Amino acid sequence: MDTLRIDGTELLDAMVTSVFLLDQDLRVTYLNAAAQTLLGLGPNQALGRSIADLTRGAESLQPMFDRARSGGEGVVLRELTWPAPGGADRILDCAVTQILIGQQASRLLLEVEDITQHRRLTRENTLLAQLGGSRLMVRQLAHEIKNPLGGLRGAAQLLERELLDPALREYTRVIISEADRLTNLLDSMLGPGRPPLKRPVNVHELLERVYHLLRSEASPGVTIDRDYDPSLPQLTVDPNHIIQAMLNLGRNALQALAGNAVESPRLILRTRAVSNVSVGAHRHRLVASIQFEDNGPGVLNEIRETIFYPLVSGRADGTGLGLGIAQDLVSRHGGLIEFDSSPGRTLFVISLPMDSA
Fold first, then answer.
1. For residue 313, what pLDDT is reported?
2. Are the CB atoms for 240 and 188 separated by under 8 Å?
3. Helix (H, G, I), strand (E, B) or coil at 78
4. Which residues neighbour 167 within 8 Å (Cβ) at sequence distance 6 or greater?
């Protein structure tokens, strides 16, 4: 039987872990294929240059390099945010070890494992698990809401008969129309296994309706901007479901901007087409990304892991129902709502598969 001979560099290039070899001045003396992909640079562009010059992410590794050089022990840093080519941040686990290669001076071995996809899948599974627990509570609350909603509609009908001024009757018709819309929404949420009433729609038409509603509700001084991708094709969705989900996200953002001293408060409604996205166990070739970005104070740390549960709210007067309902409505279309938040920037994203029919 022939012995298979493999060069060491071939093994390193076959690894999915990024491997860098640095001299004591932190200049790159070797990098494998995965490391080249991580940096978006070839060996001719990277060799001989300081790792700090190649990427801003290396700045966070400086204390690790110092400890490894002074103590000679391996140092590990987990879940480091690393700016990747194209502007998309990656989440990495990093390890630095000081080694000797033959009779040469010592080198620093930097190993970098990209855990971005693993972290995303873990977070998605957590969100989907929350959804299962919250759906029962939402249905129970919907039962309680339907009774007073019917009384509200009946009172508006009686009032309409008593009003002589046609202009005033317009207000009662708005009350009746909105009560009917909410009743239909509740019926859909309560129906066991009943699918949404889907039809092809232009998502920007739905967003425009949400935009005008949010503008009428926004506090003075709050700017609401639109950044749409006109190439986005039609989606096959239940318009009432998606409008309600978007309204809930937009209203949450407005409340965060109004309840805090935010300089130049701003909400951006944005659409994008994103390719090769996993939602739960399903991978989709193309997904519509509907984004609500505000420059408010961000989501409180203590509610980040439970924010989609009913009755969880960051406001003292909040009901904690909006996000749970929105997540439920979007999930009925095979989609998911995710968020990323830090002080000064909070982004909620509705991902809807374009093959959701």
1. 54
2. yes
3. strand
4. none
- The pair of three-digit structure tokens given for residue 166, joined into one six-digit string: 């046609």
User: Which of 110, 49, 116 shows the shortest CA–CA distance to 81?
Assistant: 116
| Sign of the four-CA dihedral 50, 53, 56, 59 | positive
Could you write out the DSSP letters of every residue in 287-328? Answer: EEEEEEEE-SS---GGGGGGTTSTT--SSTT--S-HHHHHHH
Give CA separation, 140 vs 134, 136, 248, 343, in Å.
Answer: 10, 6, 19, 35
Confidence of residue 85 (pLDDT cuts 50, 70, 90): low
Q: What share of the chain is helix, strand, coil (3-state, %, to 5)?
A: 45, 25, 30
Range with lowest mean pLDDT among 4-8, 79-83, 292-296, 331-335: 4-8
Q: In what order do the strands lie in the sheet with 28-31?
A: 28-31, 18-22, 107-114, 89-99, 75-83
Angle, helices 239-258 vs 203-217, to 10°: value is 30
**CA end-to-end distance (rounded Å), the chain:** 56
Domains along the chain? 8-114 (3.30.450.20), 119-353 (3.30.565.10)
Q: Which helix (H) or strand (E) holds 206?
A: helix 203-217
Beta strands in 172-304 (DSSP E): 199-201, 223-227, 235-237, 266-279, 282-294
Is 314 within 8 Å of 277 (Cβ atoms)? no
